[in-house]
Amino acid sequence: MSERVNVKKKSAPSGGIRVSEAKADAALPTLGPKEMLRWAWTQLTSMRTALFLLLLLAVAAVPGSLFPQRPANPAVVTQYIKDNPDYGQLLDSLQLYDVYSSAWFSAIYLLLFISLIGCVVPRAIAHYKAMRSQPPRTPQRLSRLPEYGTLVIPAHAGIPASDAIHGAARLLKKRGYRVEVRDDDGARPSLGAERGFLKEVGNLVFHTSLIGVLVSVAAGGLFGYSGQRILVEGDTFVNTLVGYDQFNPGTNFQSGQLQPYSVQLDKFDITFDRESEGKFGQPIDFSAAVTTKENPDAPARQETLKVNDPITLGGTSIYLTGNGYAPVVTIRDGAGNVAMQGPVVAKLQGDNYYSSVVIKVPDAKPDQLGFAGFFLPTAFVTDEGVSFSGDPELFNPQLTLNSYYGDLGLDEGSPQNVFELDVQDLTPLNARNLDAGGITLAPGSSYTLPDGKGTISFDGVKRYIGVDIHHNPGQLYALIFALLAVAGLILSLYVNRRRVWVRTGTHGDGRTMVEYGLLARGEDHRLAGEAAALRKLLAAEWQLSQDEPAHASSPTTPAGPSGPEKDQ
Amino acid sequence: MPYGINETMGQYSELFMLLAAGTYTVAFIAFAWDLAKSSKALRAVDLKAAQAEEAARVPVGAAAGIRGESDLAGPADRAERPSSSTSRGAGAGGAATADADMRYAAERRAPARVAVALTVLGALIHGAGVVTRALGAGRVPWGNMYEFLTTGAFVAVAVFLLVLVRRDLRFLGTFVVGLTIIMLVAASVAYWTPVGHLVPALQSYWLIIHVSIAVLSSALFTLTFAMSALQLVQSHREKTVAAGGTDKLGFMRLVPSALSLENLSYRINAIAFIGWTFTLMFGAIWAEKAWGRFWGWDTKEVWTFVIWVVYAGYLHARATRGWTGTRAAWLSIVGYLCVIFNFTIVNQFFNGLHSYSGL
Q1: Mean pLDDT across the stretch A438-463?
Q2: Do the chains contact at A489 and B289, CB–CB below 8 Å?
Q3: Candidates A58, A277, A493; nearest CB to B306
Q4: Which of B3, B13, B198, B321 should one mutate to test binding to chain A, selecting the residue with the greatest count of A CBs within 10 A?
């Protein structure tokens, strides 16, 4: 926002310190509430404050990268507070785990945006007026302008001063200037011309668009929603609240927003790197074949869901965000009835899909059963008895489990983490340190639990995927405003706002003298180039030879910056 | 599906990188030699010019016979701020020798020419290294830290050489080439990674767009960082000389005035800022494609935002009274330090969704 400051600049050198001192002296004793507000407003919307707030915003954003953030990962925050008992709570009370929704961060950006509005609105009004008014009057001494030159039209050309000014006006109009000719019947006709109004328009569009981006983000938070779901091969997700494993509604979310589309995971394929040595076994392609239906009655469609390639359905986007193995098990209880059958999602723990498995069997009778252990797609056991997974693919799948019986605590209704088994109230059946030992199963094998508690068989392995479902009505608008902002930014940086004045006069000997001056508003390193180009055009218009020694500035360096020349 | 891996190409690439680093090292020495030699020569020229001026009491133009470049170099206070141009008396003549416009002068600086030629050669070899790396991996050569460094260093040199076509920025040679050598060495020693496929998260055309613009903007920020640092030194030196102090930083004669450094770095920063804005936007679009949200305050996003805000502050500072010149230069430097921080520390030590881009 250069202009407002430029105005200040102009008035300042005469005695900036004195003026401000006088202001302070005069203002202090008489500050009523109204003046106080005005003073606060002037301060807030000043360039210095805006700059200060901008830099403060940068500083305030940093802690969010230093400390774990709740919105990204609440569990890590809880753990962090536990691990750092001495200052963990203190940081929490300072909202350092919720930096971007904290009172202080919000205060900074809201003040910044208020300051921005307080700057943009008056400037927009001023610019609107400027665009509708004529170029400023011709200065008395054009030679004082940063770019200045003169041309002489010889008497024999027969171009009087008024014709010359109209010729110049025509040229400038063609070059995109808005031109006003003054006093064209007088002895010293002149013209004022101005161009580059788009610079300020771009500037205003840029800053206004930033407000637009902010509003769009806020709207997304109000009306959007997101959720997660794990799908084992063969599973179907229906977009209803109960279909989600986890659901994060926006503030204004209504469940009627959910369109009951369905997604069935048919098959999930992974390609692993078998070529490069350093990254052997690293996944290089995830590909989920899914069948989708827009609504329960719609025709089914085959689609492929990949990383970086979401599926769009019912106003939401569905993303592939995770995957793993789900060993299929059948568990019979002590009575010989099937108490549980199906895939169990194994949670990734280490390299090569080394995963943890928890199985809870509340339906087993007479005692409820629980299993906890590990799944390894390619099991290896070291001499020390430590098992690890040697490859991500199913070369030697193995399920190693401990088993427990007793009350799982599921009947009390309090929610439990499906990936954790609380063994405190359970009696162990199988474990490495017990006589019965642990359970080790390969696909197709089964094991009979001690004490006639039942059997477990490992039937096979399926794959599962984790999908994120997002609906953000604000993001399209955020994109549009961001694009507008960039367009405005480019205009404001690369359109140059310039003013040109030309004055002509007829010399006593019949020659027509032409002088011109250029002034840039704001940063403009190409003003000298424009001056040279104009000189060339004017000279061509009146068929003057280029090296007419009309002016001391050396024609050999037409593009060189001015400065010293103007005083000659 | 990704293309196959060609290990042989990868090995060629590493050989090229090594050769390039060697060539740059020689170029670096040549640039340093140029700084030492030319500043000495310039001082002698200035001394003679000053003597001639004393004797004849004629304008600087009289020195044309000796230097043969005065109309190109122009008076020292050219393009100076109106307020400061008047305050610069005879003392200023001793401080500013280099061309304020950073156009090439007629005078030949043999070591600098050798240095530039060597840099071009190094860049060609370096470019071959980047291309063979891309061929070896069958994809764009920016998928991990090793590749960011090698490709980023190449872009920095290429941008520098491109700017050299229009402007005489050879005084930046030691800095740019020196930094390039550091980047290549760091890549080979600390971040070496064999050619390999991209993880699925990076398999997107946004990788090509987002990262290339980020690297290009960073290369431009590198130039402006060097110029801003020199601007601070130069403005300190100008003050010292103007106050009648002794000029201890003779080699700075080769460097243009603080104001012209400020002006050019502003123009380059403006381009780089637009580039960074695109980096941010394209990153957001890609994040939406990959993770389902365009902005989530991931550590990398935070730092990209911080950098954007700092350079936005820089652009505003240039239009704020009391913030031009030295303060703006500091902002430009802080911005670049954030770029470095974002590239090194954040990539390596901060957990975030961008972590896979690392090692």
Answers
A1: 92
A2: no
A3: A58
A4: B321
State the smallest CA–CA distance between residue A286 and chain B in angstroms: 7
What would the DSSP string read from start to end of B63-85?
GHHHHS-HHHH--TTTT--HHHH
| A319 closest CB neighbour out of B101, B291, B305 | B291
Q: Which sequence spans correspond to the domains of chain A? A: 33-119, 134-196+496-541, 225-471
Of residues A275 and B333, more confidence is placed in B333
Q: Is the pTM above the cut of 0.95?
A: no
Burial class (CB in 10 A: 0-12, 13-18, 19+), A117: middle
We find that the CATH architecture of domain A134-196+496-541 is: 2-Layer Sandwich (3.30)
ipTM over 0.90: no
> Is B4 in Cβ contact with A51 (below 8 Å)?
no
* pLDDT confidence of residue A56: 94
Give the residue from chain B lying closest to A528, CA to CA: B79
Q: Which residues, including other chains, have CB under 8 Å from residue B63's CB and lie 6 or more apart? A: B45, B48, B49, B52, B53, B70
User: B297–A557: do the CB atoms touch at under 8 Å?
Assistant: no
Nearest-angstrom CA–CA distance, B96 and B90: 11
CB-based contact A442:A398 (threshold 8 Å)? yes
Is the Cβ of A48 closer than 8 Å to some Cβ of chain B? Answer: yes
pLDDT at B200 over 90: no
Give the chain A residue whose CA is nearest to the CA of B86: A564
Please identify among residues 296-325 of chain B the ones whose CB lies closer than 8 Å to any CB of chain A. 296-299, 302-303, 305-306, 309-310, 312-313, 316-323
What pLDDT digit, counting tens, does each position of A100-149 carry?
999 999 999 999 999 999 989 999 999 999 999 998 899 999 999 999 99
CB contact at 8 A, A454 and A369: yes
Which pLDDT value is given to residue B346? 81
Q: How far apart are CA A273 and CA A109, in angstroms?
A: 46
Write out the two tokens for B3.
């293309």
Q: A331 φ, ψ to 5°?
A: -120, 125
Q: Is A383 exposed, middle or buried (0-12, 13-18, 19+ CB in 10 A)?
A: exposed
